[in-house]
Design brief:
4 strands; 20% strand; 110 residues; 39% helix; alpha+beta
């Protein structure tokens, strides 16, 4: 598990992602910090295009994150941790060098 400074940094990166309370974001950041580092959250259309994102990406509406996993951490480990913590995942993709997650609203399924 990461230290509080790392969790706070991830929480800042997530602020635009889920638009939730800072306490909620800090909880998510703590989960993610145990497994890796958030590398992307909200994206402008220009930035999304520049990084090769999909035109209908959840990043464009602030509901997606990318996480660079630590060595030895699998995508499945992160997916399970997020779901067990109660997050609704509408996308969960192993992109090879990182994991991509898009979040739904409570009660939303895909």
């Amino acid at each position: 598990p990461a230290n509080a400074a790392s969790s706070a940094g991830n929480a800042d990166a997530l602020l635009a992602v889920l638009g939730s309370s800072s306490a909620h974001l800090l909880g998510l950041a703590r989960i993610l910090s145990a497994y890796g580092t958030v590398t992307s959250g909200f994206r402008s259309v220009t930035h999304n295009r520049r990084v090769g994102g999909m035109p209908n990406s959840y990043h464009l509406i602030g509901r997606a994150i990318d996480v660079a996993r630590r060595p030895g951490v699998s995508h499945r480990m992160l997916d399970i941790a997020l779901r067990r913590a109660g997050y609704v995942l509408v996308e969960s993709l192993d992109e090879g060098d990182h994991s991509h997650f898009a979040f739904g609203r409570p009660g939303e399924d895909k």
